[in-house]
Each structure stands twice: as structure tokens, then as C-alpha cells.
């Protein structure tokens, strides 16, 4: 179980180079790793709870046996005071049984207490590593998202200035030039198509104006 955390440190410490080489999504993989770590922590937490419960159970057994030892000794004294030696002997025999049990139970309790302490320490270590990995994950996710945005922008910008776009602008420019040439040609054709009468009319109109002006000056003089 704890080997997984060591593997996580290696993966995250190398900043997911292996995953990137395999074209895996680092953001999704980081989230998956964190979920696996959370599951491991929950498993260890469950083990700690069970071990603590076992420790408390053994402690209760030790306490009960010690209480029984005290009780049997008091009963043996009362039996002797009452002149019942046989009853006192039986009480002392049961006291001896409980005394032997206490030694074994105390040894088991000490071992359970030590195991619970080790598990608590491991759990704290795992949680600390998890928090460190979480901070590292958040940093890597932000960097990965930033890199993806930059890549998308660069691709978009390269597309705007690409050959296809430039060729399209060139074609549109040629069409505009063609439209302008057609417009100029139509104006030239219109001028060339004027009739001779129209030209004389224009000429006559100019002479008449000049003649009228000349008559006006002569009248004044």
C-alpha cells in the first residue's frame, strides 16, 4: 500500500514526463492518482480504527482480570474469616488463573498498542504526502491548462496567417481590381457611344453662350 505513495512521488516529481510521452491527459491522470491516494488513506484509516478498537478491547480484558484477581483475594480472606478453608482455596485457585491470563493479555495489549501507534504514524505520513501531492497536482494542472491554452492560441494565430488565408485575400483583391477595371471600361464605352448630334449640340450650346455674352458687352459699350 505504502509503495503506491513512493510511486506517486516518482511520477509527480518527474512532472508526468512518462504520461506526456504516452500522449495521456495529465490533468485526468493527476485526478486519478489523487483518487487512488484517497482510497489508500481511507483503507489505512479503517485499519487504524480496527487496531484501536482491538487495543481498547484488550485493555478492558486486562482491567477485568485485575479486578477479578482483587475480588478473589478478598473473597478468600472472607472465606478464611468464616472458617471455610476449602472455599478460600477455590477462590485463590481462580485468582491464580486470572493472574496467568493477565500476563498474556497485557503482552497482547502492549503489542496492539504499539501496532496502533505505528499505524497512526503511517497514516499521518500518508496524509502529509497526500497534501504535498495535492499542492503539486494543483500547480501541474494550472501549468498544463496554461500550456493547452497557449497551444490552441498559437494554432489559431498560425491559421490566420496561413497560406490559405493569404491566398483568399489575394483572390479577393484581384476581384476588386477586376470590378474597378470593368467600371472604367463601361465609362469609356459610354463616352465613345455618344452620337455626333450630341457632340454638335454640346458645341452649339457653348457658341450660343459665348455669342450672348458678346452681345451683352457690345450693348453696354
Give a description of the structure.
The chain is mainly alpha-helical. The chain has two domains: 2-160, Helix Hairpins (Orthogonal Bundle); 168-220, no CATH class. The protein has six helices and no strands. The longest helix has 76 residues, at 85-160. The N and C termini lie far apart (127 Å).
Describe what is shown at a glance.
Belongs to the PspA/Vipp/IM30 family. The chain is an all-alpha fold and 221 residues long.
Question: Topology of this protein?
Answer:
Blueprint: H1 2-13, H2 17-21, H3 26-81, H4 85-160, H5 163-192, H6 196-220
Beta-strand segment tally: 0
What share of the residues lie within helices?
over 70%
What is the level-2 CATH architecture name of the largest domain? Answer: Orthogonal Bundle
- Alpha carbon gap, first and last residue: 127 Å
SSE series: HHHHHH
Number of domains: 2
Low-confidence runs: none
Rg, Cα atoms, Å: 52 Å
Shape: rod-shaped
Most strands sheet: none
* Class of secondary structure makeup: mainly alpha
Number of H- or I-type helical stretches: 6
- Give the CATH class of the largest domain: Mainly Alpha
Family: Belongs to the PspA/Vipp/IM30 family.
Organism: Paenisporosarcina antarctica
Protein name: PspA/IM30 family protein
List keywords for this structure.
221 residues; mainly alpha; Helix Hairpins; 2 domains; 0% strand
